[in-house]
Amino acid sequence: MAANIAILGASGYTGAELVRLIATHPGMRIAALTADRKAGQSMAQVFPHLRHLDLPTLSTIEQVDFSGIDLAFVALPHGLSQALVKGLPRDLKVVDLGADFRLSPEAYETWYGQPHAAPELQPEAVYGLTEFYRDRIKGARLVAGTGCNAATVQFALRPLIEGKLIDLDDIVCDLKNGVSGAGRSLKENMLFAERSEDVAGYSQGGKHRHLGEFDQEFSALAGRDVRIIFTPHLVPVNRGILASVYVKGDAQAVHAALAARYADEPFCIVLPFGELPAMAHVQGSNFVHLGVTGDRVTGRALVVSTLDNLNKGSSGQAVQNANLMLGLPETEGLMLAPVFP
Amino acid sequence: MAANIAILGASGYTGAELVRLIATHPGMRIAALTADRKAGQSMAQVFPHLRHLDLPTLSTIEQVDFSGIDLAFVALPHGLSQALVKGLPRDLKVVDLGADFRLSPEAYETWYGQPHAAPELQPEAVYGLTEFYRDRIKGARLVAGTGCNAATVQFALRPLIEGKLIDLDDIVCDLKNGVSGAGRSLKENMLFAERSEDVAGYSQGGKHRHLGEFDQEFSALAGRDVRIIFTPHLVPVNRGILASVYVKGDAQAVHAALAARYADEPFCIVLPFGELPAMAHVQGSNFVHLGVTGDRVTGRALVVSTLDNLNKGSSGQAVQNANLMLGLPETEGLMLAPVFP
Amino acid sequence: MAANIAILGASGYTGAELVRLIATHPGMRIAALTADRKAGQSMAQVFPHLRHLDLPTLSTIEQVDFSGIDLAFVALPHGLSQALVKGLPRDLKVVDLGADFRLSPEAYETWYGQPHAAPELQPEAVYGLTEFYRDRIKGARLVAGTGCNAATVQFALRPLIEGKLIDLDDIVCDLKNGVSGAGRSLKENMLFAERSEDVAGYSQGGKHRHLGEFDQEFSALAGRDVRIIFTPHLVPVNRGILASVYVKGDAQAVHAALAARYADEPFCIVLPFGELPAMAHVQGSNFVHLGVTGDRVTGRALVVSTLDNLNKGSSGQAVQNANLMLGLPETEGLMLAPVFP
Amino acid sequence: MAANIAILGASGYTGAELVRLIATHPGMRIAALTADRKAGQSMAQVFPHLRHLDLPTLSTIEQVDFSGIDLAFVALPHGLSQALVKGLPRDLKVVDLGADFRLSPEAYETWYGQPHAAPELQPEAVYGLTEFYRDRIKGARLVAGTGCNAATVQFALRPLIEGKLIDLDDIVCDLKNGVSGAGRSLKENMLFAERSEDVAGYSQGGKHRHLGEFDQEFSALAGRDVRIIFTPHLVPVNRGILASVYVKGDAQAVHAALAARYADEPFCIVLPFGELPAMAHVQGSNFVHLGVTGDRVTGRALVVSTLDNLNKGSSGQAVQNANLMLGLPETEGLMLAPVFP
């Protein structure tokens, strides 16, 4: 029997992507959808591409009867999940797609500029990078989905840091990000006429909040402080993140480490040495494509990692984690092939 | 047990879309893939977005052992299917995605400028517009997939012509077409720099080959010659056709006829009167969205029909037909939700 | 000596386009720029692409000393120009780019839903379609720029209506519009992720406000009421309008009438019979490209007209009119070639 | 009196951009246009956006009477200019936009894989980065236009290398390139459906030919070998290159050096410290925008440089150089403002 799912915050792009994935997921059924400002509307009004589905009307969170719900996805802007999750039933499994439970309360305050409203929940929250926290996720009540950029770069770097294959003080990550990562909220610089035909960086110089995740994860892996150089750039595509990661190390060893680490991972594909992936080849899917090349300058390697920010970077990852939490096969509902072109 | 499928002409976009759909189709498995000029290559080399799949290597058609194949999709440029299909085993079910078996030999010669190479097969070929030829498709050996534009417009017009609801001498169809419909072949006007930021019509003035299908189908429905005005325009999107069909008739009656006709169709959705669909809401799916509005000029109606040219307009339609031919549920493998944004 | 120019409402796209054009216009210099909500900012902050220019700081309208200004362009949202223009000095020449002075007070109220605030100015306002109101514009104090869609379609139809070449009761205009026409204001459906990869109509069914201009102009030309069928569609390009106009008439005569009418017009180019223009070939310029083809259905013609909505459809037209009003050569500053690709 | 200009190789995008720029250039007139494979066609057939211009018919190079020509732009694929330039009259000024005269014969052979056909011309060829070779260009007969990527990165790095402000062994350049840089030739990966919605690197790992220019120029400046890490990525925009250059050095000093160096340059604009430029703000123009920020990791700086590859990166640069060679004001015809949006 399918698990009953609530999606809290269903009127954003990650909410819509959750619905899309669950629509053909044999082990889940959507029992409640909330969107406070759009309560009372049908999902078809908010997202007409889902109008073929028979879905519950959008409600407020207060209107949800959680007694029959097995798992809730929380897809709210950062800062709003904390108090909300605190108020949910203790026996409800929760996958939070936002930033609220990714960091320690201290790091959260540093990067998000406000004290955490539910620090007591932090200890039980498991970081949601499935391929690296799988065992803990299986038993978790609360999983904190990773940042989409954070996921992309960690797939490239974690095995290299763990394997002591690269210089930890010289890691430069240049990201190219699709526009949907900014969500559906109204900002002038997200208008079509502003983004189309443009490429521009943002949060440059070490100011992007996903650095909190990198600091936490990479330092823990390395056993020392690691501070990467990290610059995201908006590119005029809807979905996708492509990270070009410049490292100092032996390129062949770097490739071998990634190939070995992901050999048995269903969603992580490492290309042959010297081949590098393209963003268009993962869109709409839960796959990560990784590639490595050397350089004419010896001792240098380029690692490229690409995934779909709404899917593997957010909602697909969330479903993957939910599968584990619900005792379902990890890949269930997630083997949809990328859509190209 | 899953049916064994061959895809002949797998190196084009419709071939890739077939593989994408079959990848998560429980009733089909891919047993052979051909692409004469790319024989010997893996599908991952030709379409890296499919590299997570375990697929047969591309071969020539001659190399295929058809004895174990249940059904072949033929996705070749027009003109090449005729001789090929003629040479296939008589007991092999065939869904042709090209233009070769859509028209009578005479009409074929008129629109495609060459005599038909297999006129003897024409009588058994069933026109593949599933919603209107379902019963004949179930028993067919050879189904001729429709043109993608032809499908889009027929969904809008067939019930209106059949219901005698519109003036048959004043039908204007203005189409906006995504670029993938032109396929993967090399043409200067299909370069990114030429198509991006452009909108331009083509085959204007009654020269587009899909008019052969309209003439044949609409005249048969009406019991008299029908000649529509039809102009397609290339727009800078990858997938999608949106047809704006201007008719003379009572808009409410037009809407009622479409709503009634498609009430039980799983893939055809008619919006409430006055609401009109958008291309972005069907991309990646087998759904057709239809809408109708009136005009301040009485006696006029606008019918808008939109679908994904690679999916419902081609490969999705083909799988839908193959499901029927193989005795599978018609919707199997095709309920993938549209991908938005 | 260059004329002193004020741009009132310089923070929108048409304001920026005015600045771009005047930047290399030998007969004009920008003396004042206003933007009420952005007063105090530099133009470089609002539009960084103009940062190489030495421009006045944005101010409020109240802060402008109009005594030294020769001509003001008013680029405000509709409804705001009326009271403003009323308050400007009587000897200041004004080109309004908005909708406020295009229509009679009655028609204005019908289409814009509110009474006109300065009906006494209406009689002196000249409709700004330069090629057809040139003589009156030369002597005008107040010129009302046309709607961008309205201009595009009028270039196609005016000579045909005047020449009695087409059936006035069967004119279907299907437009494809670039996104910049919607301006820089924040609307969910103008986000990149919503517009990219989409085509969708709007204001269908005879509801678009530019119909007020068509009714007024075409009825006056014909000496009887004319009501065209008109549907605009948003396409994912920044600039450009391409109108496909379906008429009943002799295609060769239609072409001959357009060719004759525009033979001496510097900005209107009629292609050889049977060739139709593309949106990409006018972007960034003040040119209109027009083409005509017949159809296999005799008595039908397709006229296609395309221009850049921000340039010839708005700011370029405004400069062209200002040239006339200031006694400058009509083409001065406007011969910039289209930018392709 | 305007100088007579020939454009040899006018059927590519840089040829069209030259025509666009010269169309409003008061000191130049186009006297000859060649395109061997399209000889006999009008420029309007090859580039309809230029159809308003009165231009010579395309001819073969052999058909050109060079006696009345003052200067020739050569816009041919690399490898073809060498022999051609050799055969041109000795008193004809030449600006080559291709790669043939940028490098020493040895370096040319290394990077382009074939011996140079006119090594005797190499000594007189001046490298065309105007802002750094201005004095030599004024007296040159033959100027070799730089690579478009090469120009973008050199604007960022030359003053820093010259000022000994950065670690020469740790320079990482990540470029995002518009698609028009690949030209109009037919390649599968340049089709709209392949490039739209994609970001992908190319020539990674130190294989891009513009590295020959970097090696030559940076090593000469530094007085030692310099080898930068350089990765270009194709992004779905038509025009523009944005280089993110990661260096080790004091960010404030880096900014100060750039600001000082370009203070009097008409086309190079350095943003205030901490502000970084966007590609959309230079398109269609000859301007370069530069910005610098520091990082939370001390001793690191990010320099971003952006320009229009067809304009400042190629044809605009060529006109700027031609202005100098012809004794015209350097900025003549080049002050066109960027086109946004």
Automatic annotation (TrEMBL), chains A, B, C, D:
Give an example GO cellular component term for this record: cytoplasm
Q: What does this protein do?
A: Catalyzes the NADPH-dependent reduction of N-acetyl-5-glutamyl phosphate to yield N-acetyl-L-glutamate 5-semialdehyde.
Tell me which residues make up the Semialdehyde dehydrogenase NAD-binding domain. 4-140
Q: What is this protein called?
A: N-acetyl-gamma-glutamyl-phosphate reductase
Pathway stated in the Swiss-Prot or TrEMBL entry: Amino-acid biosynthesis; L-arginine biosynthesis; N(2)-acetyl-L-ornithine from L-glutamate: step 3/4
Q: Which cellular compartments is it found in? A: Cytoplasm
Molecular function (Gene Ontology), one example: NADP+ binding
Q: Which reaction does it catalyse?
A: N-acetyl-L-glutamate 5-semialdehyde + phosphate + NADP(+) = N-acetyl-L-glutamyl 5-phosphate + NADPH + H(+)
Q: What is its EC number?
A: 1.2.1.38
Please name the taxonomic classification of the source: Bacteria, Pseudomonadati, Pseudomonadota, Alphaproteobacteria, Rhodobacterales
**What is the species listed in this Swiss-Prot or TrEMBL entry?**
Rubellimicrobium mesophilum DSM 19309
The UniProt entry, under Gene3D superfamilies, shows: Dihydrodipicolinate Reductase, domain 2, NAD(P)-binding Rossmann-like Domain
User: Which Gene Ontology BP annotations are present?
Assistant: L-arginine biosynthetic process
- Give the family per the record: Belongs to the NAGSA dehydrogenase family. Type 1 subfamily.
What positions does UniProt annotate as the active site of this protein? Answer: 148
